[in-house]
Amino acid sequence: MYTIRVEAGFSAAHFLSGYRGKCENLHGHNYRVRAYARGEDLDESGMLLDFGVFKKALREVCETLDHGLLNENPVFKDSPSAERIARHIFESLSAALPGVPLLAVEVFESDTSMARYEP
After folding, report:
1. Architecture of domain 2-117
2. This model's pTM is above 0.90
């Protein structure tokens, strides 16, 4: 089994509706995103997936979130938690790369706080 990973990032603001604490207030993060693909079969070049293709697709998905207020995106139901962001990025990446064996997406709000989505 082979696993590959690429990274990208974006900066955005959000607040968590229905949450009691500091994160209910408007604040921002410099998000770090890691996407993983896993599979048994390599292509004729000996690769599971070209890193360049994978990175480009992830960057394009992240660009749709960059420098925005995530609460304005209806997919997050006005509460863009790291968990919901990870799922959204996974699903967007899946749509951009049909047939690619995506494994998971991790979204880091900080060096020590991360959410992972895998179907």
Report:
1. 2-Layer Sandwich (3.30)
2. yes
Domain edges within the chain: 2-117
- Which element (helix H / strand E) includes 32? strand 27-39
Most distant CA pair in the chain, distance: 53
What is the pLDDT at residue 84? Answer: 96
8 A C-beta contact, residue 86 and residue 115: yes
Could you give the count of Cα atoms lying within 13 Å of 4 in the half-sphere of its Cβ?
19
**Rounded-to-5 percentages of helix, strand, coil across the chain:** 30, 35, 35
64-106 pLDDT, tens digit per residue, is 999 999 999 999 987 999 999 999 999 999 999 999 999 999 9
